[in-house]
Amino acid sequence: MTRCPRIVVVGLLLTMVVFDACSGRRAQLAERLDSTDAELRADQEALRKELASQHLRQQLLAERLRQAEEELVRLRAQMLVAGERPEGLGRRSSGASTPSQAATGGSAAASKATTTVDPAALYEKARAHFGERQYGPALELFAQIVTEAPKSAQADNAQYWIGECHYGEGRFRRALQAFGQVLAYKKTEKDDDAQLKIARCHLALGEKDQAIAAFQGLLQTFPNSEYVGAARRELRYLEGP
Q: Distance between CA 88 and CA 122 in Å, rounded?
């Protein structure tokens, strides 16, 4: 074999070696890409399942809280009507209107209010309806107090129970608005109650971040509230380990 054909043969052999090496690298890269893609898909699926699990936990918690709160509110209403326990006993004394004043009709502020309705009588009747879970009639009477006797001693409490009526019927967005309006009253003992229910409305609506912020707001604004313990427990659950 002459020198020129030998050079050609050597060149062909080198080309084949380089081609085989490139093919091998491409195969390795393709294998690594497939492996990375599979891992990424697995991570995405795990994340999707975790998010779904968290959403389910929030829904279950919201429903459990709603049922417990509804039962508690119903029992409180029944006790108030029966005269067993004035609501707000042992809580802050600010001179604001309270359900116990409304139930007895002994509020001086109510007598000064310029109105043709008897807000104390309406309030007592509305609470009786609520105690029987008759949210529609109760809502109408509470709304009548707020509309026709806005300066009465029962107005702020009536506004709060408007929120409870919506909450009891599962209208959480309307309940959220109603509870927010309670905070506009300068003198009320229902402010921390309303703040708690604002957080629980957000929770029921699946708005976790807003619920956490509302619970934290209760701790910061009402550090002496009877609901501090409940807010902390629910925050621990929502924020996780």
A: 20
